[in-house]
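Could someone model zinc ion with this protein?
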Amino acid sequence: MKGGFLLFAVVAMLVLAPERVSGQGTATLVLTNGRIWTEDIHQPEGQAVAIRGNRILAVGDAASMLKLANPNTRVVDLQGRRVVPGFNDAHVHFYTGGDGLSSVQLRDAASPQEMRRRIGEFVQHLPKGEWILNGNWDHEKWTPANLPTHQLIDDFTPDNPVFVNRSDGHMMLANALAMNLAGVNKETKDVPGGVIVRDSAGEPTGIFKDAAKGLIERVIPSPSEQHILSALLAAQKYAAENGVTSVQDMGVLGPHGADIMADVIRCYQILLKRGQLRVRVSAHLPLPEWKRFASAGVMADFGNEKLQIGAVKSFADGSLGSTTAWFFDSYNDAPGTYGIPSDELSDPETMYGRLRGADRAGIQIAVHAIGDRANNTILGLFERLERDEGSRDRRLRIEHAQHLLGSDIPRFSELHVIASMQPYHCIDDGRWADKRIGAARARTTYAFRSLLDAGAVLAFGSDWWVAPMEPLLGIYAAATRRTLDGRHPDGWVPEQKISVAEAVHAYTLGSAYASMEENVKGSIERNKLADLVVLSKDIFHIDPVEIQNVKVDMTIFDGKIDFERK
Ligand SMILES: [Zn+2]
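Reply:
Sure, complex below.
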């Protein structure tokens, strides 16, 4: 036995040690003995990757990569594990998510009683007067799926205003105190672009949809700088644990929304200066404020490799879950209801004027569109923009692009519009979307396959805080379309499934393209930023159904190991 061990040790020294100690290369980190998914079409697979500082030095076989090492180089033996480029989440609400991590958790509350119990427990640890926000409840998980009302939580929240959101962020529940503070009652008039749900006597039930949320939001105090900083730190920790090395921040949901995005961007800069920013951020700003950025000379892609100003973001409609996504035909379960255009789109000429102004100033544009009519209308405005301003590489984006007319699918590639989509929503909505939109419309819902076949660029993301910021779940969703309730084992609208490789592409190079950064990141190739993820299993060679159990073992950000699963 001893002799065998000695022989093994000698062989191991001969095989591994000489390169490790004698190499004269300049690599600071070498990952060896792995399977490197490069996303580089010229070199689809490598065994090892060498990193110098925050850049990729080379990809290749283990021996040649180890030659790039020196005695101070950190060498990691991957033991055959899969490496992919760092995930780039093309659609997150980063501050909202970080803030939500420290608030009451209602996402998996399976009944109104459970929601009541959790808020009751949470309020016990709060000082009087402190607001209870976030939450992420989802009445679609309840039987029957009735909306909650303020009476559910009033008896134990007399001193704490409550304004908690549904998981899609388009609908909120207020308690009686919050409505009192905001002066909202039976006499309050309806708001364009929003809904105040009322009981048979005309009293508000506590549910406020879309633009009506502003009635309550305006009395919620804005968060301190310290509060924002700690939320961002919590968010980037969660990002690293899930292999997310870049995020495209679509802004703040809920209270203050657009108003505090500038504060959030200032906090990103504070973290950057302190050397604490451990995720690359592309921050989007609200379209109505485009003039402020234009007058400061901000154009698309302004900033550096860690923090940039992305697009101006606008809204065309609401969401499917809140019955505010805007369709040509009425909702199957609500005849006569078509959803509503957003207040920004309620006057299309005003919106077009803003889009055109921003575009002339060289600013990138992203518009949230869910229903088929919202998507069709925005594609129309984009087409008009190309006609009026001539064609150039403007990287127009539609966020969600969820329900499309079949005839609109080719327009994404014709008009060079990026479809920025969140596959997790597909397996979430797929539980109940059929009853709302019917089978015919479902065929071109989350139409990943049709969009790719028509030549469109897909950029994938999560929409966190609305959904988990877990790219592996998103990849699983795009490749299997198995709904969360287990009722579609072969996939909901299975003909729209895409391959794991296509989903990874959309989550890396596709999203980098969407923020105009495909030349610096999104693939593992020489001179690109060293953002990489090591996975517990090879997602390209297992049944896609198994991907939901795969873990991120290691996240390398900017050339340094930022997270390692214990
Ligand atoms: Zn969003």
